[in-house]
Structure formats: C-alpha cells, structure tokens
C-alpha cells in the first residue's frame, strides 16, 4: 500500500488549512487507499535555513527526520493556505531545505482560504517552485474556498461533495505514484 505524506503548511495560531490536512489523512485511510501521515510544519518550528540540509554541518532539530519523512513517502499532498496572494514562508523554507528528496516525487497541491477563490492564486507559484526542485506536480488541484465552512476542526467535511472532489484528486496522485513505480 502506498504511503502519503501530507504537509500542513501553515504555522499560524488560528490556522484553518490544517482541517484539510486532517480530512485527507482520514479520507486516505478510511477508504483504504494509502497509509498517511501529517507532516506538520507548525510542530517542527524550523528556523529560516541558511543552506540546504545536505550542506548544513549542524542541522536544526527535526530537519533530518523531516527529510526522511519526505523521502520515504511515495507521494506528497501539500496543503497550503493563501496569504495575500502567496503561500506561507514556512512551506518555501521547508521546500528549499531539501533537493534530492523532491526529485520526481509526485506532489499534489491543495489550497485553502477563507475567501471565495480558495487559494487558487498560489497553485501556479508553488508548482513553479516544485518544478525547479525537479518534483512531479500532479495536474489535479484541490482548492478550498471558505475552508472554515467546508471542514470542522477535526477535518470532517460539511457535505458529501468534498469526498467526491477528493476521489478525483487522489486518483490523479495515485496514478502518478503508480506510473513512477513502473518507470523506475
């Protein structure tokens, strides 16, 4: 069974995007699609990195564990909020820390905002960064407008439509994971 890492990108106190990360973990496991773990950047509380992990003499606490979690995942879902038309600095910092770990890694992007656009403005910017890191970004997207109305604090969706959207989104990620395995 594939293993999916779900990066929860927001480190803010009253973050709503984490609800989406919880939703995906529950969706993947309850539908017996994959094992899943949340890689919560808030728990790591990383400093601003001065260099890539491979060049750091004394990596900060958690950096090696984070790199290993990314490396062992067959695919990644990045759940990120939109902050003023962009993604949070915590996810850029966490992406830039690594390099080889992203190579050909299937990555699906889910965005969230409390507004009506659901964070869609961030998707192409984040895709470009990941493309430069040689990651394989999945074409399917999963924006969440008014995220606070779509999921409760535990990631339980407010309606069945979210599960239908997730099915399509996850199917694309799983296709890329299988295709990568066949190409190795």
Describe the structure.
- The chain is 41% helix and 19% strand.
- The protein is α/β, with parallel strands linked by helices and 184 residues long.
- The protein has a 5-stranded parallel beta sheet with strand order 2-1-3-4-5, with helices on both faces.
Helix residue percentage:
40-55%
The first-to-last residue Cα distance is 17 Å
Proportion of residues in β-strands: 15-25%
- The CATH superfamily name is Flavodoxin domain
Task: Tell me the strand order in the biggest sheet.
Answer: 2-1-3-4-5
- The SS-based structural class is alpha/beta
Overall mean pLDDT: 96
Tell me the CATH architecture.
Answer: 3-Layer(aba) Sandwich
CATH class: Alpha Beta
Main sheet attributes: strand count, strand direction, barrel closure: 5 strands, parallel
Strand element count? 5
Outline type: globular
Put simply, the count of helices is 7
Q: How many structural units, i.e. domains?
A: 1
Index terms:
184 residues; alpha/beta; Rossmann fold; 7 helices; 5 strands; 41% helix; globular
């Amino acid at each position: 069974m594939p293993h999916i890492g779900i990066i929860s990108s927001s480190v803010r106190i009253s973050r709503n995007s984490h609800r989406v990360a919880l939703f995906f973990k529950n969706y993947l496991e309850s539908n017996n699609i994959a094992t899943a773990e949340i890689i919560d950047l808030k728990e790591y509380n990383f400093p601003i990195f001065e260099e890539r992990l491979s060049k750091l003499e004394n990596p900060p606490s958690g950096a090696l564990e984070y790199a290993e979690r990314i490396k062992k995942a067959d695919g990644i879902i990045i759940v990120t909020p939109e902050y003023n038309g962009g993604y949070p600095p915590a996810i850029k910092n966490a992406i830039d820390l690594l390099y080889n770990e992203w190579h050909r890694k299937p990555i699906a992007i889910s965005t969230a905002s409390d507004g009506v656009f659901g964070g869609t403005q961030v998707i192409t910017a984040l895709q470009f960064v990941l493309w430069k890191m040689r990651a394989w970004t999945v074409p399917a997207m999963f924006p969440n407008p008014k995220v606070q109305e779509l999921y409760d604090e535990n990631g339980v969706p407010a309606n069945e439509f979210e599960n239908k959207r997730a099915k399509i989104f996850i199917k694309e990620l799983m296709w890329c994971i299988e295709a990568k395995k066949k190409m190795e």
